[in-house]
Design goal:
CATH superfamily of the largest domain: Metallo-dependent phosphatases
Mean pLDDT: 88
CATH class of the largest domain: Alpha Beta
CATH topology of the largest domain: Purple Acid Phosphatase, chain A, domain 2
Radius of gyration: 20 Å
Number of helices: 8
Strand content: 25-35%
Order of helices and strands: HHHEEEHEHEHEEHEEEHEEEEE
Low-confidence stretches: 53-66
Helix content: 25-40%
Oligomer: single chain
Distance between the termini: 40 Å
Length: 318
């Protein structure tokens, strides 16, 4: 049975009535196919196609485009969580190459980029250090689009792609909202506009037991403090430390997880403000496996050398 085609004008009307996910189901196509056609239709019609606000999230909205919370149900499957890529133009890091490989090999139910995908030093509230060379916002957006597109291609079409906002990512909209608030709701001023295949939010809740967000508590014991104070298993980034801290009590066992960083700890973005100090950071990401809706012991993938990562006591070339 062949899927009927529709005109550009009908596509535009349905996209703005239904949104990408419902339109994909309506046409029997993948959601990414819908986004790809949306881009082409916008060019041909010379106007932007704006999806309706969705109601499949819980909580208030952040700005115009970021839902506070996305809820997922994963009974049996894998969720990959990578954080702190701090993408600049240049070679792909070892951890990011491994992340793409695991997206292809493990066929995850969801892939979550847990904040600070971009670095955005040009629009930081912090002054530059000396005369350091930094990429422009446009260069970072372009480099990030390339990396995320590779992830999109590596994952199965059923995989949910989610981006939990980090403090560095927030610089993009904060700068525009501060200096040009009258541009609110115009396509292009929101970070999500440049990454349409990714659902944006502050946190992801899986089976109501596991919370994934960029950051909460600070300090060396943050993963333990997060799960101790929340009563949930919590997966965060921000600290770049890569560790799992279990806690058991009368309610059972839950986990505080720091995913480490997809960036190289010696990334140029970090060199000046860390003043070349030793960093208790590790490059890698987390693999979350669910069995009958229950989170098993979270597993970490960590960079072994420039060409390999370690996982389950194996050295995997990437």
């Amino acid at each position: 049975m062949t899927t009927p085609t529709i005109s550009d004008h009908d596509f535009a009307r349905l996209f703005e009535e239904l949104g990408a996910r419902k339109l994909a189901k309506h046409l029997g196509k993948g959601e990414r196919d819908i986004y790809h056609r949306r881009e082409n239709v916008e060019k041909r019609l010379r106007r932007q196609l704006v999806a309706p606000k969705v109601n499949n999230t819980v909580g208030t909205r952040v700005g115009a485009e970021h839902a506070a919370r996305i809820k997922l149900e994963v009974k049996n499957g894998v969720v990959l969580v990578g954080s702190d890529a701090h993408i600049w133009p240049g070679p792909t890091t070892t951890a990011m190459r491994a992340f793409k490989k695991f997206c292809k090999d493990l066929r995850p139910a969801a892939v979550i980029l847990n904040g600070d995908v971009l670095d955005l030093p040009k629009i930081s509230r912090h002054p530059p250090i000396g005369w350091e060379t930094q990429p422009t916002v446009a260069e970072e957006i372009e480099a990030s689009q390339s990396e995320l597109h590779d992830i999109e291609l590596a994952t199965p079409k059923s995989c949910r792609l989610i981006w939990t906002l980090g403090n560095h990512d927030a610089r993009f909209e904060t700068r525009i909202a501060t200096v040009a608030p009258e541009y609110a709701k115009i396509h292009g001023v929101h970070l999500k506009d440049h990454f349409p295949a990714w659902d944006a939010c502050w946190s992801v809740w899986i089976n109501d037991d596991v919370v994934i967000k960029h950051r909460w508590k600070g300090g060396i014991n943050a993963p333990r403090a997060n799960t101790l104070n929340s009563g949930k298993s919590i997966v965060t980034g921000h600290l770049h430390s890569s560790k799992v801290s279990p806690i058991s009590d009368y309610n059972g066992t839950r986990y505080g997880v720091d995913t480490g960083c997809l960036a190289n700890p010696d990334h140029p973005a970090f060199l000046d403000y860390t003043e070349d100090n030793a960093k208790d950071w590790r490059s890698g990401f987390a693999v979350l496996t669910f069995r009958d809706g229950v989170l098993m012991m979270p597993e970490l993938v960590q960079v072994w050398d420039d060409n390999a990562v370690q996982f389950r006591a194996e050295i995997i070339k990437v």
